[in-house]
Amino acid sequence: MHPPSRQDYISINFAGQGSGSYNNSKQWRRQSCWRKWKQLSRLQRSLILILLFICGIASYPAVTEQLRGLTDGDPETDSNSVFPHVLPEAVKQDQPPLPEPTSQRKLSNRRGPPVLQNRLQKKENASNTVVEDKASDNKKEGEEEEVISRRGPEGPKDGENKEGSPANQKVQLSIQSVANWREAVQEAFRHAWKGYKDFAWGHDELRPLSKSYSEWFGLGLTLIDSLDTMWILGLKEEFEEAKTWVATELTFNKNVDVNLFESTIRILGGLLSTYHLTGDTLFLDKAKDIGSRLMPAFNTPSKIPYSDVNIGKGTAHPPRWTSDSTVAEVTSIQLEFRELSRLTQEPQYQAAVAEVMKQVHKLNGKLDGLVPMFINTNNGQFTHQGIYTLGARADSYYEYLLKQWIQGGKKENELLEDYLQAIEGVKNNLLQKSSPNGLTFVGEVSHGQFSPKMDHLVCFLPGTLALGAYNGLPADHMDLAKQLMETCYQMYIQMETGLSPEIVHFNMHQGSTRDIEVKLADRHNLLRPETVESLFYLYRFTKDQKYREWGWKILQNFNKYTKVSSGGYTSINNVRDPDYPSPRDKMESFFLGETLKYLYLLFSDDPNLISLDQYVFNTEAHPLPIWPSN
Ligand code: DMJ
Predict the structure, then answer these.
(1) 141-159, pLDDT tens digit by residue?
(2) Interval 99-149: pLDDT, tens
(3) What's the CA-to-centroid distance between 536 and ligand 1, angstroms?
(4) If DSSP states are collapsed to H, E and C, what string results for 103-136?
(5) CA-closest candidate to residue 469, choices 456, 453, 481
(6) Which DSSP letter does residue 389 get?
(7) pLDDT on residue 53
(8) 3-state secondary structure of 152
């Protein structure tokens, strides 16, 4: 194993050692120039000023042309301006190609105090209008050709951009920019894959700094999670070598405990979707193998599954300290097991997961359709009641209500009822606005008390709401989706690294100076996908280019602060310190399975590349087919 080396991080600030002296010497130089200037006669000073003025006019076009070639013109994406750290040369070369600069891009990229942003944007919006902002009107994907937004000749329309919020800003992008962004995602994937291949091949997760790996289940988790991403991104060579590993090395006949939920969404989901995309039965055979080995988890007194299964021994158990399972875990394995039954024509998989939904549907202890976080595997009742969140331990329950309904052809009414009721529950109990800028956010309720805490995990919700609205659910779900999307983006862009922390707290009292606070323990970023996932849905349904722009900013920030030069990306501990974000030395499998896949699809111009009329994504971004109606 190689020890971690500082040069491995893209984000290390070598200037940190001497930043004080850099500032001092600059100040000293400024003072001495001023003294010399004061010693000149008035005539000398006037002559110098006139000369400078003439030189400035003469060189203006050349200078601007030159700058265009060097930077995208955005102080934030220009790595040495806002974040004054020094990047190692080798790492700089790893940066993806920069897109064509456009005036609108520059406007939308501005960070800084939200109040100031709003003021600036109000002014800018008054003079720059881009017309295309197609709201969701339940058009089928691909029915209308995508229009890249263009500046309208007629100027601003009535009602456009009145609020001046970043959410209402219109963005124009060139086709070339977006093509470059797709390439940048492919490049990021290749870079991540290189690290995995060089140091973690066949293991669960890459540890990019120590150039080693970590095992969770010992099943090549990253490789399996990445299969369909490689297929979608068109990385054929990489896909073929991974497929060879699956064919020759992957075995589930192992004496290992795996988590039912994690192995279902990542392994079973990954194999099923790869089977559908490729038609290669290798993946279906492997999916059947892991699916049947997970079934002992359902042998409990209540039929609510245990959290852990030994896939070699065929035994299952709850965690050592409790007989409870997590609600999100037992209710977010349904898409995969239902699909396995459909493909194999063996009903036991679907029956097992349907039983869980049936029981949860009937349970007492919900708050307006919102579920607690734990359920007991002996008596099938909710436990530790009183906490209601859309974050960890409950999140994908809501997502899978909607997605099962879509998967099954919108016939299963109980799923729809539970979903609609839960969204009303969110609106009535968890939705608030922050101060001073009125960002809409989803908080939590703990024993009757509202807490303005929001996990990054909750950022799946804008995408899910938008998907529901696209499938005919109330239009106000789309309005809420747009508001929450803005909030999730602000969770990134208001941080010094431009990357979201794991958890934020919103200010609600009048007189607050900033909307978002982050506690010390919550400052990490695990390369999670939820925000870019939602950006993908919002873009697909609205065709508003700003969502792509936001995704591009996020990808750039991942590249700036989490990319490891020898290969791979790393989770970081501190999104508030651009000089030393404190890498964690771990690349989660969902970075390849989800984050990069959603980014690529966000930048794709082909609505038929995983059409949302044909596929529904599981909670690990593995697309599964919507069942044909008969
Ligand atoms: C993934 O495993 C899935 O997206 C899951 O639903 C939530 N946690 C991670 C990503 O954040």
Answers:
(1) 544 333 333 222 223 332 2
(2) 222 222 222 222 222 222 332 233 333 222 222 233 333 445 544 333 333
(3) 16
(4) HHHHHHCCCCCHHHHHHHHHHHHHHCCECCCCCC
(5) 481
(6) -
(7) 67
(8) coil
Pocket mutation for ligand 1, best pick of 527, 590, 592 (most atoms within 8 Å of C-beta): 590
How far apart are the CA of 57 and the centre of ligand 1, in A?
Answer: 55
Whole-angstrom distance, CA of residue 202 vs CA of residue 463: 32
Which residues are CB-contacts of 230 (< 8 A; sequence separation ≥ 6)? 189, 193, 236, 238, 239, 242
| Whether 447 contacts 386, CB under 8 Å | yes
The answer to whether 375 touches 330, Cβ cutoff 8 Å, is yes
**How is residue 338 annotated by DSSP?**
H
Q: What is the DSSP letter of 577?
A: -
Distance 619 CA to ligand 1 centre (A): 6
How far apart CA 289 and CA 265 sit, in angstroms, is 15
Place of tokens 């938008």: 466
User: Partners of 449 in the beta sheet?
Assistant: 446
Say if CB 431 and CB 366 are below 8 A apart: no
Paired with 213 in beta bridges are 206
Mean pLDDT of all residues in 356-369: 98
* Helix or strand (DSSP H, E) at 93: helix 89-93
Starting at the edge strand that comes first in sequence, how are the strands of the sheet with 315-317 ordered? 257-259, 308-310, 315-317
**How far apart, in whole angstroms, are the C-alpha atoms of residue 516 and residue 248?**
50
Residue 551 tokens, joined: 């995704």
Ligand 1: nearest atom to the Cα of 526: 11
Cα dihedral across residues 435, 439, 440, 441: positive or negative: negative
332: nearest Cα among 126, 65, 619: 619
Higher-pLDDT residue of 540, 26: 540
With residues binned 3-state (H G I as helix, E B as strand, rest as coil), the percentages for the chain, rounded to 5, are 50, 10, 40
pLDDT class for 48, splitting at 50, 70, 90? confident
Length of the chain: 630
Q: Where are the beta strands (DSSP E) in 491-581?
A: 503-506, 516-517
Count of alpha carbons within 13 Å of 572, Cβ hemisphere only? 29
Chain centroid, CA 202 distance in Å: 25
Phi-psi region of 73 (alpha: psi -120 to 50; beta: other; left: phi over 0): left
Range scoring the smallest mean pLDDT among 167-181, 205-219, 221-235, 377-391: 167-181
Q: Is 395 a catalytic residue?
A: yes
Q: Is 309 exposed, middle or buried, given 0-12, 13-18 or 19+ CB atoms closer than 10 A?
A: buried
pLDDT at 124: 33
